[in-house]
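User: Aspartate beta-hydroxylase domain-containing protein 2, Chanos chanos:
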Amino acid sequence: MSWSLDLVPLPPCMELGGQPLSGLLWTLLLLFLWYCYRVGSDPPGIGRVHPGKLKSGSARCSLSRSSSCSGSEPGRSAPKASAAIGRETGEEEEEGAESYLTPVLSQALFPAQAGAGTRKLYGALQEYAKRYSWVGMGRIHKGLRNQARINERSSIQKPHLFYLPDVPSIPFFPRDAHRHDIDVLEANYPIILAEFQAVYQRGIDTKLGWTYHGPKGQAVFPLYNAGVCVASNCRACPCTYRTLLSLRTFISSNSLGAAGFWILGPGATIGGSYGPTNTRLRCHLGLQTPAQCELVVGGEPQCWSEGHCLLVDDSFLHTISHNGGAEDGPRVIFSVDLWHPNVAAAERQALDYIFAPEQ
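Assistant: Predicted structure for Aspartate beta-hydroxylase domain-containing protein 2:
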């Protein structure tokens, strides 16, 4: 359809101050007429929907896979909710075109080989999504469904509790990944060391807040254990406790997070093991680090340095050894669990809910 306007002289009644309308007003008039023409050319009944968003009626229709849903035209299938999630989170659809949200309504699609622990976590995710939103939960949903497959595979990275897909992973992260928190810890190194020495000189005893962990020669003085503050130990190290609270990414609200002093005696070795999840990084602040101590993560060896931090992804296979003698004394680090920098804020909130500390 084509049409044009023939410009004709205006009658006196359409002149301003005896002068014809300016060219700008003519331009605005032409734009208005063009807009009316374009709007009028859209087929009736078709609304414009913002890319990446679906009307609520269409989303409900996709979830229930119903052919009759208000807001959809006869003979035209409703758009799938999983398509919107794919655009938002960058995830691809599951094989067989299954929506990420389908298992919300049916437990049948959850993997049969999943253990009781994983099913409990999945139930917690459903509760969280019903209370808040499924927005941003694509990776967590996929990770819980695939956890059994992760546990069965042979890999150098195999977190045994929860694996978040599509998270960039390397055994040792650069300092820039958590520059602020590392600077805070290193700046407070002298007072953290002094408070450790004070509790260490009282003796290593379970009655004094210590716990034995792993092989002989390893002990932990926890300030946070599985997301729970150990109040008596924090009172013994008040400056270290305040330093923890000043960190931006410390995992303090769920069972994946911990912080405390770790001791490894001479001659002790911790064999190859995997951490519980790849959603965190362990920050090791060296307090006492004999030269014969070594940390190997994912096949890469590193040594601690007093007053400096290492960022470790312990979901990789890792070993720790102290090959020094009695004269070297124990290796001592202050370990703090920080969020992996590629875990989004919405995912952190959901993981706090799913892995809430046991009461």
